[in-house]
Amino acid sequence: MAVTEQxxxxxxxxxxxxxxxxQPASLVVRxxxxxxxxxxxxxxIDHLQIGYQTYGTLDGNRANAILVCHALTGDQHAANRNPxxxxxxWWDMMIGPGKPIDTDRYFVICANVVGSCMGTTGPASTNxxxxxxxxxxxxxxxxxxxxxxxxxxxxxxxxxxxFSVAGGSLGGMQVLQWAASYPERVFSALPLAAxxxxxxxxxxxxxxxxxxxxxxxxxxxxxxLEAGTSPRKGLAVARMAAHITYLSxxxxxxxxxxxxQDRDKPTFGFDxxxxxxxxLRHQGSSFVDRFDANSxxxxxxxxxYFDLAAEHGGRLANAFKGSRTRFCVASFTxxxxxxxxxxKTVVRALNAAGASVSFVEIxxxxxxxxxxxxxxxxxxxxxxxxxxxxxxxGIR
Amino acid sequence: MAVTEQxxxxxxxxxxxxxxxxQPASLVVRxxxxxxxxxxxxxxIDHLQIGYQTYGTLDGNRANAILVCHALTGDQHAANRNPxxxxxxWWDMMIGPGKPIDTDRYFVICANVVGSCMGTTGPASTNxxxxxxxxxxxxxxxxxxxxxxxxxxxxxxxxxxxFSVAGGSLGGMQVLQWAASYPERVFSALPLAAxxxxxxxxxxxxxxxxxxxxxxxxxxxxxxLEAGTSPRKGLAVARMAAHITYLSxxxxxxxxxxxxQDRDKPTFGFDxxxxxxxxLRHQGSSFVDRFDANSxxxxxxxxxYFDLAAEHGGRLANAFKGSRTRFCVASFTxxxxxxxxxxKTVVRALNAAGASVSFVEIxxxxxxxxxxxxxxxxxxxxxxxxxxxxxxxGIR
Lengths: 396, 396
Fold this sequence. Notes:
Two copies of one chain form a homodimer. Chain A is an alpha/beta fold. The first copy, chain A, has two domains: 3-197 and 311-393, Rossmann fold (3-Layer(aba) Sandwich); 202-300, Rna Polymerase Sigma Factor, Chain: A. In chain A, 33% of the residues lie in helices and 16% in strands. Chain A has helices at residues 17-20, 143-157, 170-181, 200-215, 224-227, 232-246, 249-255, 275-287, 293-305, 340-352, 376-393, and strands spanning 3-6, 27-31, 37-38, 44-45, 49-55, 65-69, 95-96, 101-102, 107-111, 162-168, 186-192, 326-332, 356-362. A nine-stranded mixed sheet of chain A has the order 1-2-5-9-6-10-11-12-13, with helices on both faces. The longest helix of chain A is centred in the last third of the chain and has 18 residues, at 376-393. The two termini of chain A are 37 Å apart. Chains A and B meet through helix 4, helix 6, helix 7, helix 8 and helix 9 of A and helix 4, helix 6, helix 7, helix 8 and helix 9 of B.
């Protein structure tokens, strides 16, 4: 049998992230070797598995499907309790009955990306050829590969055309890739806090994270799962460095300033004297409980390689030539990882391609992470854009 | 004998950084236990050693001395070939005959800061009490402690009043501390690319670096020198993360963009495919050859603790009350580590204190490191400010 479908096992908070790679607490589809995922690198995945979730109901015309794309360390659990952390889904405020992505009206699909560790094939998955985790034997993945895998999932689900694709950060990159790779399958697109390429500074921060992981002797050249070790310290340092880039200077100042942690005066030592240190250490140590270090290498690398213009002869507008997709591009004023200028480059290319595009720069001091947070202007933008597009498509 | 003075041994490029801690290739003064350095932490250093360099000639009135203060990983070799790296001094373009800090006219002193590793007492120095390197037995140091030690050096050199104090980044913090701690000894002051406190974001980046070092098992709880190991990987990661903050997004884009390193297309792997990765790895690996990991902990910590307003009842203007020092504050447009807003806070406090201050924001796309680079507007600012102050002080 070429394809097997598995219903989600009952999710209980506190499941191990390690178990999720092969047996995720979500819907799963497994493709046979007759349907390999052919990769940009020239490699292929012969037994592709995709972990995904859905919310809402597909309408009779199969016309109301929205694909939601997650960011670097996100997963398919966009709007349900996360089986590993026990926390609400990462876009719980955005997706649900009556919410901006209204599940009373739309059918929402969210799939874990290839290379990740929550049920879609990634370096922590068992390689059927060896019975061991892939580790670094998994070929390097690109954003286009992630999108190709999602297209296979949609084919499997019998969804020819998406009403919309939406996502922030790496999710926004996937949105742009979808619009470029499958324009006829995308009615509308919402790339948020993203850009059409990864900048030099962003590659640099990712490289610091990867070097931190690979410097940890417990990484064991990527074979830590078999060795029974874990590069916890290296992965925590990688997360700490990255986390700073997700916030803004203002947000850190407002949240922590120079406040001391549970003490009246400095200890004159190397403990976490400052609240911001304590917060960062917590971010690092809690991350390692839910994410695979090799997946961190793969997914950051996919982002680094992303350059939509380069895929289209160096001219970004070519990526959207003749597109009939309706775009809504949004950025945040204090986002310095994907600053407004990157979104404007996308908007200019869409204009040059004659595409339909609206653009909004949302005032927020919360940095890149704003797309995940309670931002009323973001919610009203998404709600309004989707409603208007739904009307155009005849979705009630 | 309370004080011993040592002339510089002949410097040959390629000397080990390890040797510099106790026997630097520079001038050295050693204070006896009758002149301890009393520290903000309550601790003290009983056998303080200071490595320093001088350029130019002290005039008959002892009125033309300029103290130059170095940044986090700088040293006393401001304007001579560095004995470890063999490269020109870090402010070679700024200091010398006919240069903005003109050694035909001024007598320049630059001392390695306490906690560093190039000849002034730091964690790599031999603790006279044990005969072993201090390691983490050295008390934590503050910027005020660094400045206190410099004042001891000036006393030793018979210099009562400085014509000027100048420096960028941590050097600029020292300048501000000098003006606050010893206002009567500072005729003029040039804090560049600095601020009166370390921001929450800056503390966060430092904490990432420290965690990277301490995560390296070769760090051995700070006792790596005796163990014959070195936390090279951790220190390299710390340097890589920090280095990104010294540049600007624009500078990285201009220098590297998304260019590949010695290849036509990506390798789809985790090698340094991009030039910016290769550059960063080089920055990391060359740094560990010249800097001590524990010193990195101490000096970053001193910067984190710096908060001049907090030292003065929470009101920065109090730090400069009644000051007769002439200030010239400068920032760079693309510096996001010490943005212009931090300099403006200093300027406002100086205005509120009724001090004499000029302020210039220099247009540059090179980020924080601009203060070390060939920036004509910086040079003309320093030259002009010093000339005018020299006239006021009667220096020919």
